[in-house]
Design brief:
CATH superfamily of the largest domain: Dipeptide-binding Protein, Domain 3
Radius of gyration: 23 Å
Mean pLDDT: 90
Strand content: 15-25%
Shape: globular
Low-confidence stretches: 1-29, 31-47
Number of strands: 20
Structural class: alpha+beta
Helix content: 25-40%
Distance between the termini: 52 Å
Largest sheet: 7 strands, mixed
Length: 554
């Protein structure tokens, strides 16, 4: 990404505070007078309703604008669909809104045939006059790609995933061939492109709905009152309390088996478990590891588990003070007892990370050597870097549970104590989730706890999305890391189709990462989903999201 594009991305991101305020105000306006009440959750649990105890509020309901799993659960996996999908529980690409695809011999042109008979939702006064077609695909990507597009600047004009994956540089054009055929033209071959089309940011929106709102001078409603082709329609959002959905009867996969879906916002893991145990919800997100033994032993509760495609890490802001020096970053890593941290925070539901990739990915290399706990070596290296008496910095910790880190606050306290022993004084800061994302995306932190759950089953989704130059000054590349030799390796890997060659390039990239250490890998969490025995046909997706379109409730 050029410096000019990086500056544009940074300026656009600065509008997100205004967007967040608008979002909260309009979210309150979405609440229907009789849709929600203090006692509604228990009542909703009866019949064909699924209540999901979610860990927090979404930061928004337009996937192109968001970066967090909470928001993707509440929007991309409910209201919207994508062109391609994964077969349940696998990374095998499957048809969705596109039924077939062809790739040119040079790997630069992807032609997709679109599904016929797909309906958009009738919601918020919108009554579609046509079915889904190529115009909607072109609109979806043109909005993100073209600064002159009439909807590009709506809601702030920042598309962090699109930027972080360097699609502005890769994607030359998206063209309508006919009503049911689209063509994606790339500037160079890209081995992950089909997998990228399964990702939440690529959820397809309605060009007709956008046109109607713009004609009515209500363009902002496009992102605040969402309409898609997905299995559920949004009924109401009460921030801090609930989101309510109804089944979309005309969904192309068939009407969902449940009539109503409720996200009961429950930030405290202990309270989520209590509500599941009491029957107030039928599924819960991210249990407290300390509760797992009791959950397993409770009659009427079943638990699904799988190794997570995720990582928790400590990001060092490589543009801030002493952290510009990789010797300082390595010293801070040497000072942290990661084994003790994982034992205390994950309590058996996670493993210590050996590198920047989770073991579930094919380019994972178990032989990498991260700095091992050695406070004496840490002090020596700080002195060599010019800080014999240490220094002070801020250490940021998000307030809620995440799939990759059940308690960032507890982890921060342990890191703070470890650093204090080598003379580094850390003050811990925390903000509400959406504000945390906004601030770390702007690079306000010195060091910040963060994490990532894989989106597309490819190593580039970690090594590229989190560490490439295009992600600087976005909520993806929290280290503000841009190393040209590293960038050349991950870019070369994207242009190769054979896995052996890609693996060799990614191994070099991982070694470069460990030399520079822009962030310290901490752990990989196990994905655990407790649910009522009344819930059927739920499969943990290969990526760390929740999907309810196929679920049944007795």
């Amino acid at each position: 990404m050029t410096d000019g594009v990086r500056q544009v991305a940074h300026r656009a991101h600065g509008a997100s505070g205004h967007w967040a305020c608008l979002l909260r105000r309009w979210a309150l306006a979405l609440v229907l007078p009789t849709a929600l009440s203090a006692t509604s959750t228990a009542v909703a649990a009866a019949g064909r309703t699924l209540v999901f105890c979610s860990e927090g509020d979404p930061s928004g309901l337009q996937p192109a604008l968001q970066v967090d799993g909470i928001s993707f659960d509440a929007s991309a996996r409910t209201i919207y669909d994508r062109l391609l999908d994964f077969k349940p529980g696998t990374t095998e690409i499957a048809p969705a809104l596109a039924t077939a695809w062809q790739v040119s011999s040079d790997g630069r042109v992807y032609t997709l045939q679109l599904r016929r008979g797909v309906h958009f939702q009738r919601n918020f006064g919108f009554v579609p006059s046509r079915e889904f077609n190529a115009d909607d695909v072109v609109f979806t990507f043109a909005r993100m790609a073209n600064p002159r597009h009439p909807y590009h600047a709506v809601s702030g004009g920042a598309y962090p995933y699109y930027a972080a994956m360097e699609l502005p540089r890769l994607l030359r054009a998206v063209r309508r061939v006919d009503a049911h055929t689209v063509r994606f033209e790339l500037n160079q071959p890209n081995a992950t492109f089909l997998a990228d089309l399964t990702m939440d940011f690529a959820s397809i929106v309605s060009a007709e709905y956008a046109g109607q709102l713009r004609a009515e001078r209500r363009a902002q409603d496009f992102d605040l009152k969402p309409v898609g082709t997905g299995p559920f329609e949004l009924v109401a959002w009460e921030p801090g309390a609930q989101l309510r959905y109804r089944a979309f009867a005309e969904h192309w996969r068939g009407r969902p088996a449940i009539d109503r879906l409720v996200f009961a916002i429950t930030p405290d893991a202990a309270v989520r478990w209590a509500r599941l145990r009491a029957g107030e919800c039928q599924m819960m997100a991210m249990p407290n590891p300390a509760d797992l033994r009791a959950i397993d032993a409770t009659p009427g509760i079943v638990v699904q588990r799988k190794p997570g495609m995720n990582i928790a890490y400590l990001a060092f802001n490589t543009e801030h003070g002493p952290l510009r020096d990789r010797r300082v970053r390595r010293a801070l890593a040497l000072a942290i007892d990661r084994d003790a941290l994982v034992r205390a925070v994950y309590q058996g539901a996670g493993v210590v990370a050996r590198g920047p990739l989770p073991p579930t990915l094919w380019a994972y290399e178990p032989g990498l050597q991260l700095p091992r706990f050695d406070p004496v070596a840490a002090r020596r290296m700080l002195a060599e870097a010019g800080y014999p008496k240490g220094f002070s910095l801020t250490l940021w910790a998000f307030p809620n549970s995440r799939p990759y880190l059940p308690s960032a606050r507890r982890a921060a306290e342990m890191i703070q104590a470890d650093w204090e022993r080598v003379g580094v004084h850390a003050s811990v800061r925390s903000y509400e989730w959406a504000e945390y994302l906004r601030r770390v995306g702007r690079g306000e932190h010195d060091a910040a706890l963060a994490g990532w759950s894989g989106d597309n089953g490819d190593p580039d989704n970690f090594l590229g999305t989190l560490l490439n130059c295009g992600g600087v000054h976005t909520p993806q590349n929290l280290s503000e890391y841009c190393n040209r030799s590293y960038q050349e390796l991950i870019e070369a890997a994207l242009t190769r189709s054979d896995r052996a060659t890609r693996r060799a390039l990614y191994l070099q990239a991982q070694r470069r990462f460990i030399d520079d250490l822009p962030w310290l890998p901490l752990a990989h969490a196990q994905v655990v989903v407790p649910m009522s025995a009344r819930v059927h046909d739920y499969t943990i997706p290969v990526i760390d999201v929740h999907e309810f379109g196929r679920v049944r409730v007795d």
